[in-house]
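Async update (no meeting this week)

Hi team, since we skipped the sync, here's where things stand on the single-chain job. The sequence we agreed to prioritize is pasted below, unchanged from the tracker. I ran it this morning and attached the output directly underneath so nobody has to dig for it. Comments welcome in thread, and please keep replies under the output.
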Amino acid sequence: MSEASNNSNSTPQPEAKPQPQMDEAHAQSAAQATSDPAAAAVTDPLADAQAELANLKAQNADLADQYLRAQADVQNARRRADDEIAKARKFAVEGFAESLLPVLDSLEAGLAIPNVTLEQIREGSEATLRQLKSALERNKVVEINPAAGTKFDPHHHQAISVVPAEQEANTVVTVLQKGYSIAERVLRPALVTVTAPK
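Output:
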């Protein structure tokens, strides 16, 4: 009897039953949310903004690198140009001086000969003059020696005086001193007399 009363007085405890269907439903909805890009884009704009920011930062870094490289190239080119200009200024007369050395040698050799005759001095001077003219021509130094009757050119001639002459007005009569130009630039104009206007 005691057992029956014990059984009737005790209240049975309900057993916890698992709910597998609810857990699967939650898992499926979570999987759909992660696999659907449209849903992810709508639901996570912060991630999109962060990705775009990272892309822009990478582009900015690339452009900054290109700019620095371009600046370095410009500075190197400027430095090379400055070096070349400095060398050109320093050695500008090197070729010209080298072409004049044979003239110097000829003059020294002529002066070293004892007991020379006037004829020998003249021949040596003419040979040395030819050497000098050749050296000047090789370095593009050209004489300005207008013939009589040449029209006066103020860019290449300098009129010393105006004289009457039987030729066209404003033309060269005589050359008092030759002029010279180098690479089409006048070093010294020719000193000339010109005819008076009629």
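Quick observations from my side:
Helices lie at 2-9, 20-35, 37-43, 45-90, 94-112, 118-138.
The beta strands are 141-144, 157-163, 172-177, 179-182, 185-188, 190-195.
Reply here if anything looks off.
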